Amino acid sequence: MKLKHLTTVLLSAGLMFMISCKGKPKDADIQATVTTALQSTPGISADVKDGVVTLAGTVTNQADKDAAENAAKVTQGVKSVVNNITVAAPPPPPPPAPDAAATADAALKTGVDAIVKDFPGITADVKDGVITITGESKADRWKKLKIALDALKPKKVDASGLKVK
């Protein structure tokens, strides 16, 4: 009688074991399901061990990290999720564009310097497209200088600091 009872218990335990094993998804099945769910977010990988999903990789924002974790959590058979995904720092902003006025002044200054070098006793400065002339000049030399400077098309030629003889 004891043998019959022992056999029944062992068969019942074996049957229960087989049923419980069949109902639990295997790590490979969980891995496949989680990997499929994560395909929309490149750069993330998943590893499954004993029903625990470990996520790794890099994403550009917190929303992608959270979405990956949620996708793994809802997969059948997942006991827990370890989220090792890092959020990459945003790229640095581009350097500011060069100031157009400063660039234009630099080009104008180069042209002014090339002209003024032939007129001793006269100096010129450029700011905001305005050429400011200082020094001394004869009337005929000033006329030639003024024509040459006007050809550079500045906003204005200010000769208030120039003495004409």
From TrEMBL:
Top-rank lineage group of the source organism: Bacteria
Pfam families listed in its UniProt record: BON
Domain BON: 22-89
Cited PROSITE patterns: BON, PROKAR_LIPOPROTEIN
Name this protein carries in UniProt: BON domain-containing protein
Gene3D superfamilies in the cross-refs: 3.30.1340.30
Organism in which the protein naturally occurs: Chitinophaga hostae
